[in-house]
Amino acid sequence: MLELLSSGLISVWLELSGVQIRQQDAGELLVGSGIPGFVWDETKIGGVDSPTNATLEEYLKALEAKGVRRDNQGIWLQTTHGELLANHQGNIPRSAASITKVATSLAALSTWKLDHQFETLIAARGQVVGEVLEGDLVIVGGNDPLFVWEEAIALGNALNRLGIRRVTGNLVIAGDFLMNGEDNGQKSGELLKQALNAQLWSAEITDTYNLMSRNAQKKLAAPATPKPQVAIAGQVLVSKEPPTETTPLIRHYSLPLVELLKLMNIHSSNTMAEILADALGGVQVVRKIAAEAAGVPPEQIQLINGSGLGEENRISPRAACGLFMAIQNYLRRDAAKPGNATAPLTLADLFPIAGTDGGTMEDRNIPAGSVVKTGTLWNVSALAGVLPTRDRGLVWFAILNGGGDDIWGFRDRQDQLLHQFLKQWGISPEPFPQITRNYPSNRELIEIGAPSRNELLWQRS
């Protein structure tokens, strides 16, 4: 074991994790505080850092002065290489709101490849004569968590490129097809039918189209996005099983998984998270995968869904840190695979960066460069992620506040606490490559409504 985990390899591992260490010190980790990149239990590694814990104590007293009980709070901070900096009830699972999405993200990464794309098959049941499909248009869903107006408009234009402008039969929805965050196939089918035919557009769809068209025209010599014309005469029918004897027309690919997760986490989309959790096999599958990958006791991750909507979703602060660290390790291992010539992806490719992104980062004062996930319920405010520092390298933290409805007060004090820690440890003079956004190399691939993600499968004989 010691031969395999040589001091040189450990030094490389630490460097990837944002920790500078002398070569001769690396081997001590094999028999000392442990291997970096995993979350630690303070009962096994000794006490906490006294100055940091003193700052934490002041924070808790300030909450108490506002009438918020300290036993409703959970906090954990540690360095990458295993030094526990601060702990307040860090092993107790508590309502974590959208920190649950970190578990869903980890389970998704553990199941699918980073470039995985969910497929939606569009098929014909009948014959195409001229511009008319004499029969049904069939949609076989494949759990695309972000099939929205833009995707439907691009799909309509793809059908027009095949020469199809009218359908005499029905729009048949089969498989797992959900659109615009709807939770049933019937409503999703109605929305798709409307989006495929510009004559039926609402003001909302028209606004979406206008934005797509403007963005397309910004590209050098790119034409405006066409308005699709696919008029479906029949009704929307939902089928448990895909119809037989169909002809494949188009294979629609979702955004790559890495981009889906980034959008889900930046905007904290409950719908996307729950679609992904269902596609993974359900919330208990997510819980099992996440706990094992994070290396924490399963009782520290208690979930009722993949989004965090509901107080029954409970995660310990220690486990929250473990989830983030496990994702970082997954990305590091993926980058080290033979033949992988692309820039290594990082946590910043999956989660919002403070000072850079909008979404849940708006109106926050989190230290710039931190990669985080927020969580909010009416009586819960959570913040977890990684804070880049000069003296401690990357500091992994989770702050789970509960027991009061002053959500903005919780948020402000979370941000202030991180700034206090940053003042204590110093601002890193250089950005950490481990939390620098590298994806994508192909911008077109991640554009919502990109025509290139519709593969034409049929041609006229």
Automatic annotation (TrEMBL):
Coiled-coil boundaries: none
Domain of life: Bacteria
GO-annotated biological processes: peptidoglycan metabolic process; proteolysis
UniProt entry keywords in alphabetical sequence: Carboxypeptidase, Hydrolase, Protease
EC number: 3.4.16.4
Broad enzyme group: hydrolase
Record keyword Protease present: yes
Protein's UniProt keywords contain Protease: yes
InterPro entries documented for this protein: Beta-lactam/transpept-like, Peptidase_S13
An MF annotation (GO) of this entry: serine-type D-Ala-D-Ala carboxypeptidase activity
Pfam families: Peptidase_S13
Protein family according to the UniProt entry: Belongs to the peptidase S13 family.
Name the record gives this protein: D-alanyl-D-alanine carboxypeptidase
Organism of provenance: Planktothricoides raciborskii GIHE-MW2
